[in-house]
């Protein structure tokens, strides 16, 4: 089932790609510095919209573990791989554990990522993944709150709408209070992530 999902996503996403992307090395350069990526005194706070126009804040996910991934629908490689991994993690954890997790996909391309486009995009991965989008100012605030980064690259100044975006590619894992537990680097297997999350969640419930 997982293999079929990945194949279907790969085929369908080809029609959604808006611009060529950057290599993993560029994404890795935007990962948070472990020395500064510490647990905050206050939870990571933000306000965005879901894909149906509802205002969502960090408080809407209080009481749940949260997975957060920043990306965009035009990303040709890193984002589809990460979202496929996230979907597989949810399946590996099982329905009961997955019900206690809020998986979020946050667009860093609000100019192009409409709600409909994001709904169509996420449909290929897992309906439980919640898409969030918002004005640039709100997006930047959430990105900063998570100590993440993104950069827009415009190869041809005469075609400003044809751009790619380099961004933090790890998946952030938060506790039910909204505090960062850890980050899973891009390329970490779903099996390894699920096993680690299962251990953390089980210990938290004891």
TrEMBL record:
Domain Thioredoxin: 36-202
Disulfide bond positions: 75-79
GO MF annotation terms: metal ion binding
Gene3D superfamilies to which the protein is assigned, alphabetical: Glutaredoxin
Domain of life according to the entry: Bacteria
Residues given in the record as Cu cation binding sites: 75, 79, 167
Family matches, as InterPro entries: SCO1/SenC, Thioredoxin-like_sf, Thioredoxin_domain
Signal peptide interval: 1-25
Keyword Disulfide bond set for record: yes
Keywords: Copper, Disulfide bond, Metal-binding, Signal
UniProt keyword Chloroplast present: no
Record field: transmembrane: none
Similarity-based family: Belongs to the SCO1/2 family.
UniProt-recorded name of the protein: Thioredoxin domain-containing protein
Origin species: Pseudothioclava arenosa
């Amino acid at each position: 089932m997982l293999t079929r999902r990945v194949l279907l996503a790969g085929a369908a996403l080809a029609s959604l790609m808006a611009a060529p992307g950057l290599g993993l090395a560029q994404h890795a350069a935007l990962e948070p510095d472990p020395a500064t990526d510490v647990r905050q005194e206050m939870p990571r706070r933000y306000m965005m919209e879901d894909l149906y126009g509802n205002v969502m804040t960090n408080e809407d996910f209080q009481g749940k573990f949260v997975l957060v991934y920043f990306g965009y629908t035009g990303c040709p490689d890193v984002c589809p791989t990460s979202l496929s991994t996230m979907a597989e993690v949810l399946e590996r954890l099982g329905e009961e554990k997955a019900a206690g997790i809020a998986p979020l996909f946050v667009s860093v391309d609000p100019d192009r990522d409409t709600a409909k486009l994001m709904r169509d995009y996420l449909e290929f991965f897992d309906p439980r993944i919640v898409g969030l989008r918002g004005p640039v100012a709100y997006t930047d605030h959430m990105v900063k709150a998570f100590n993440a980064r993104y950069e827009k690259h415009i190869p041809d100044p005469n075609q400003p709408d044809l751009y790619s975006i380099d961004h933090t590619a790890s998946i952030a894992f938060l506790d039910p209070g909204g505090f960062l537990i850890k980050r899973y680097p891009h390329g970490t297997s779903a099996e390894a992530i699920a096993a680690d999350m299962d251990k953390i969640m089980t210990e938290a419930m004891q």
